[in-house]
Specification:
The complex is a heterotrimer.
Chain A: H1 25-39, H2 45-56, H3 60-72, H4 74-82, H5 84-90, E1 100-105, E2 110-115, H6 124-127, H7 132-135, H8 137-145, H9 147-153, E3 163-168, E4 173-178, H10 190-194, H11 199-203
Parallel strand pairs in A: 1-4, 2-3
Chain B: H1 26-40, H2 46-55, H3 58-63, H4 66-80, H5 86-100
Helix pairs in contact in B: 1-4, 2-4
Chain C: E1 17-20, E2 39-49, H1 52-55, E3 65-73, H2 74-77, E4 87-93, E5 97-99
Antiparallel strand pairs in C: 1-2, 1-5, 2-3, 3-4
The chains are: A alpha/beta, B mainly alpha, C mainly beta.
């Protein structure tokens, strides 16, 4: 029997798992695959750790910061739409691993929505991992032929004179929706504005959150 | 030719979108990281992984969870590229299972 | 990464009407079924990319294919549409497009 390194623990044990003997067939299998790949030198522990850390550093906060900056600074907004990767670099977001990045600007008369009907392509280097619903068959099926129905489920009802544009990201382009700045937010700071920008508003199934009334 | 099981845009009969989110289990985080690490090392491309999922048995495709599908396609591609064999994966999995105890 | 091209170099230009081919062949295809046979127009030229149909089988993806953003009226794609102005936009490779006149 070859010496197994018996690496069956993950570097970050968040304790979210059931005991390992209760895991499903494929859940158990990835531990075996990982152990063999390390043993054969195909990848290293450091490779795995780096990827875990890379992924944890990515979240919707990145996108929210881009959007908030675009709302307060029209010149930045122009740069964001014209060269999104460069605009990310400007505010310290590492978008280098994204192939091609396109920002879709919403307006009073136009709303965008993004889906990947064929799998689950998503701007992960900016926003982190997609939510489960984005990867679900129901979303992938309905986003293209019933976008208004999908938006309704997320609380967004649009009149017929607003154009809804659904992007199916079938290739290497990754899309980010730039939501409309909510009314009555003129006095808010960039940080406060960023809090109104939800992940779902950057996918396009809803608008940004309204400003909280102060009176 | 029949439509691929992954090609679901516009299919009717889809229901309400379940918006509950689950925190990733350790094994899912690991699957994600192994997938990305293999890509970063140039061992496989995302296109190959997609194709592996498309070639999967259709019933299996619909039954597995998202990351289970990833693990199945990682395995398929590694075997195809003769980096691992099914037998050695089975063997290592059996070794771990005996260490972890019976379900 | 996409390789930049100018409109002069590409077969289709923004504004051109195009029809998505209805080829029915095996392999890793990134042109969804719902859009095949439909007529739309080119919105943007994204540049030249390695061909995923080849990359998916471990091949080199050459020659590069021009990728277009093609827009369709929802009313032209589905039998029933909620709103007349709505559009669906798909990223499609040149070899899947024919001129629609």
């Amino acid at each position: 029997m070859s010496e197994s390194h018996e690496r069956d623990e993950t570097p970050q044990d968040h304790g979210h798992d059931h005991p390992k003997h209760e895991l499903s067939f494929y859940a158990k299998r990835i531990y075996a695959i990982r152990d063999l790949l390390l043993e054969k030198g195909v990848i290293t522990e450091k490779d795995i750790q780096c990827q875990i850390e890379y992924q944890e550093a990515r979240s919707p906060a990145n996108g929210a910061n881009l959007v908030a900056r675009a709302w307060v600074d029209p010149a930045f907004k122009t740069r964001l739409i014209g060269d999104p990767k460069a605009a990310c670099a400007e505010i310290g977001i590492d978008a280098t691993s994204i192939n091609e990045f396109v920002v879709l600007e919403n307006s009073e008369k136009v709303r965008h929505m993004v889906v990947c009907t064929l799998c689950s392509c998503y701007p992960r280097p900016i926003l982190g991992r997609p939510p489960d619903w984005y990867k679900s068959f129901n979303y992938r099926q309905r986003a293209v032929n019933d976008p208004r129905g999908v938006m309704r489920e997320f609380g967004l009802e649009l009149p017929d004179d607003v154009e809804v544009r659904v992007h199916d990201s079938t290739a290497d382009i990754r899309y980010l929706v730039l939501p409309v700045r909510p009314k009555g937010t003129e006095r808010l700071s960039e940080t406060e504005l960023a809090k109104l920008v939800t992940r779902d508003s950057m996918i396009g199934v809803m608008d940004a959150l309204p400003a909280v009334p102060t009176s | 030719m029949p439509r691929g099981h992954h090609d679901v845009g516009g299919l009717l009969g889809a229901g309400v979108i379940d918006q509950t989110e689950h925190q990733l289990s350790d094994w899912e985080i690991l699957a994600d990281a192994v997938n990305q690490a293999l890509g970063a090392r140039g061992i496989k491309r995302t296109d190959e992984m997609r194709r592996a999922r498309e070639e999967m048995d259709s019933a299996t495709y619909r039954e597995l969870t998202y990351y289970e599908r990833w693990i199945a396609s990682i395995e398929a591609i590694l075997i195809e590229k003769k980096i691992l064999t099914r037998e050695e994966i089975d063997q290592r999995q059996a070794q771990f299972e005996s260490k972890w105890g019976e379900p | 990464m996409g390789r930049a091209v100018t409109s002069e170099q590409t077969k289709f230009k923004p504004g051109d009407r195009v029809r998505v081919r209805t080829d029915d062949r095996p392999g890793h295809i990134r042109t969804p079924c719902y859009i095949r046979g439909k007529i739309g127009w080119v919105e943007r030229v994204y540049g030249e990319f390695l061909n995923p149909e080849s990359l998916a089988y471990g091949r080199d993806g050459l020659p590069r294919r021009t990728l277009y953003l093609v827009a369709f009226n929802q009313a032209d794609v589905w039998e029933k549409t909620a709103a007349a102005k709505d559009k669906v936009l798909v990223d499609i490779y040149e070899h899947w497009l024919d001129p629609a006149g």
